[in-house]
# Entry
Amino acid sequence: MDTPIYDFLRRYNGADMARFHMPGHKGRPFLGCEPLDITEVHGADALYEADGIIAQSEANATALFGSRRTLYSTEGSSQCIRAMLYLALTCRPSGTAPFIVAARNVHKAFVYAAALLDFEVVWLWPEESSSLCACPVSPENLEKTLAALPAPPAAVYLTSPDYLGGMADIATLAKICHAHGTVLAVDNAHGAYLRFLSPSRHPLDLGADLCCDSAHKTLPVLTGGAYLHIGKCAPAAMAERAKSALALFGSTSPSYLTMASLDLCNRYLAEDYPTRLAETVQRLFALRETLTARGWRVEDSDPLRLTIAAPAGFPGTALADRLRQSGVECEYADRDFLVLMVTPENTPADFDRLLAALGENRTPYTLPMSLPLAQGKRAWSIREALFAPQETVPAEKALGRVCGAPTVACPPAIPIAVSGEVIGPEALALFRYYGVETVDVLK
# Structure
């Protein structure tokens, strides 16, 4: 597969041009990458008006992901989330209303998009939860929620995989959405690789209409590289307006280094990546079995994640410290879980070091505690609250106050309180549990 963006950068650098244009480093090495870091010079195309090398590279990505249209973001899935929601609202199917039904474990970018686009949210809550990072949505719960609404929403919005690696039943949930005349949008930030499993487990292939992937999370792409996908069965207007939707929320100075890494990744994915991915999945499966035999409780998760429950009296943060002392850094840890993310770029030596660092667990496990659901009463809209005057108060003094900025333990997670909601006693209990010390509330 060709790499038009990367090839242009190499040619431009090789031409030894006198650079009387941005960036200010003029290609002189400070970090070392500057010679390939350019702006929209002649021939370099422009991300939001792409008709040259960027358009060619995005066409390659479209073919790889089997979408109606796949576009690049250099500002991560956060930019794509805002664009997805804009498209869902402005290109919504006939007969739907301008609100979103969303599983509660949304990334902060979703809440900020609700403020910017001024839409209402109907939250899908888990039936029970042992972590704010997870919000499983059953088909029965979704069907019941949609059937009770006076009109279908502009979209149903899910996060899958979630931060612990839990995966929604996208195929079934998509059928329910379509039966109710609405579309399914999925924050698949942690699952770009799912397309290249056999069979594919990518949301687009399971029926999602809109989807975003953070390429940099699981693929060899520079930080900020992401995809916005429009499914083949999504309304045609979504594909037509996708580029302008991204431009609405993106910088006018997108990183060419990040675009070049997305471009090179196309060739990587088109060659032997599926084979290397399958080998890594098998290696991680064997590691999970070994850890289970050594007394660790390994949670069900997506194929490239290792989620370990913390034993009684031994929090996940302490496990993370143990790993760090052995030269292993995890993705995330809280009092209940330790999360590690794996890709084919992890070597067998990495796996050996991790296994040696964890060793055996002789500490017993207790039944996971069920966390309270802080379903605060809505007093203001998200937009009204986020743009209202706020003050920061100690969390224990926030009872009865209206939340200003969303309070999230980690992204993406179930916000303990969303902007505009009244903070109740359940929220205070969760603040204590997760060590949240201060909260932004309305004055």
About this structure: The first strand starts at residue 69 and ends at 73. The chain has three domains: 4-270, 273-358, 382-442.
